[in-house]
Structure formats: structure tokens, C-alpha cells
Amino acid sequence: MIKRMVAVAALIPAMMGAASGVASAQPAPKATAAVVTLTYDASRAGQWAAAVTAGVQNWNSAVHNVHLQPVSSGARADYVYVATSGWPQTTLGPILPGGRGQVQLGQEAVAEGYDMTRIAAHETGHILGLLDDYSGPCSEIMSGHGPGTSCTNAKPNTAEAARVDSNYANRTAAAVPARYPVVVDVWSAPDLARSH
């Protein structure tokens, strides 16, 4: 009986992963990559405020290497959302901390019947470095106006999320470009938009 108690007592530290001269079967925890935090200012988004919040949440739920959050009061944001009367247009990223991106949320696309949250999420995709793919299905947020006004999907698919994660992998120390290109999304005229 005493021999059994000694044997059990010798096994307890090994089962708990404690140092007892016996190697633990647990793998060492993996180092996590640094997450790039981008700040945004939606104070000029007007009637788009709820759509911006939903679109940002959709991206934050889908990606791991970048996190979007509202800018602190008095600080300068990495990018801004602005309500405009024209067509949506956006700085093409990937925007990095210290960047100067802008999302113009154009009312003309809403007048054509497109969903505000889909537009906000699509334009945020440009900030994160994704290009348009108007021939894509509704399940692809970067298909933009391609699937028509009945498409209200505002969530990126797994391939889009993976591309954004790739854009921000190991990017914390990258230099910020002096100037980024701008993408103009003409949501009602696919022939014009293809020319970009």
C-alpha cells in the first residue's frame, strides 16, 4: 500500500506539468504575432455612423493581424470616414499606423439602392489593402456593386480575411508611404468602374 502511494505521489507532479525531472507532454506556448492597431475617426460620417460601426466590427471579427478602433479624443487617426454626396472612394492601403487614409462614403451609391453597411465594409477593405473584384459573388465583400442592389452581405469571406492578415503580418515597424493611391467606386456603372 505504501509503495502504491509513493508511486502515485511521484506521478502527480508529472501529470500537473511541474518540474520533477520528467519532461512534460505539453507543447510550449507559441509566440503570438504583434497585432497592428489602426485608429479611425468617424466623427464626420454623419448618417453612416451605424454602418461604419457594423462594417468595422465585421472586419475585426474576421481578421487577426490588424485591429480597427476609434481614435482617442484629441489624437490623430490613421484614417477617417467622411460622408459625401458623390460616389464612394477610398485610399488604397494597407494603411499603417501613422498613415493618412480616408474613406469617402458617397450618398450616390445609397441613392442607387446599395446597402450602407456593405458599402462601409467594402470601402474599409480598401483601407486594409484589398482591390475590387466586381465579378465576384455576393459572399465576397470586395465584389462591391457587382452582384447588384439585392446583395447586402457586409462580411468579408475567409479568403479576403486571409489576404488582409497577410497584408499586416509583421508590419509593425514598416515605413509609412508618403502617399497612397485612391480607389473610386462607381457603384451604379460597372463599365466605368472596370476602367480603374
From TrEMBL:
Its EC number is 3.4.24.77. This is Extracellular small neutral protease. Its cofactor is Ca(2+); Zn(2+). It is an enzyme of class 3 (hydrolase). Disulfide bonds join 138-151. One of its GO terms (cellular component) is extracellular region. GO terms for molecular function: metalloendopeptidase activity; zinc ion binding. Belongs to the peptidase M7 family. GO terms for biological process: proteolysis. Keywords: Calcium, Hydrolase, Metal-binding, Metalloprotease, Protease, Signal, Zinc. Ca(2+) binds at residues 115, 117. InterPro entries: MetalloPept_cat_dom_sf, Peptidase_M7. The active site is at 123. The keyword Calcium applies. Zn(2+) binds at residues 122, 126, 132. The lineage of its organism: Bacteria, Bacillati, Actinomycetota, Actinomycetes, Kitasatosporales. Residues 1-25 form the signal peptide. Binds 1 Ca(2+) ion per subunit. SUPFAM superfamilies: Metalloproteases ('zincins'), catalytic domain. The keyword Zinc applies.
